[in-house]
Design a protein that fits this description.
92 residues, alpha+beta, two-stranded antiparallel ribbon, two-stranded antiparallel sheet, 4 strands, 28% helix, 24% strand, elongated
Length: 92
């Protein structure tokens, strides 16, 4: 087994969103350098059981938030319309 060197991180918030055995859904607010997969591993170790992630969604990093993001379909629409308009002109 690969031994990982300990790294100091800060778990600012840990909220249980849903708990229906065997699934635990949480929301974590943590410092950079945090590995949520390692958190799941540590939960499993503490419970003397296995644990893994079924899903992981980053909702914020720095000043960027999923709440202020653009939908991928809207982005495709904007890109398609911009590129069509761009190539409509002859720049030569």
């Amino acid at each position: 087994m690969l031994e990982l060197a300990p790294v100091e991180i800060e778990m600012k918030e840990l909220e249980i969103l849903e708990f229906t055995l065997p699934v635990l859904k949480i929301r974590v607010l943590c410092s950079k350098g945090s590995y949520i997969r390692a958190l799941a591993r540590d939960f499993g170790f503490a419970l003397e059981s296995g644990a893994h992630l079924a899903a992981l969604e980053r909702t914020r990093i720095g000043n960027f938030s999923i709440d202020n993001s653009i939908n991928i379909n809207d982005l495709k629409y904007i890109f398609y319309n911009f590129s069509c308009n761009l190539f409509r002109y002859n720049f030569v």
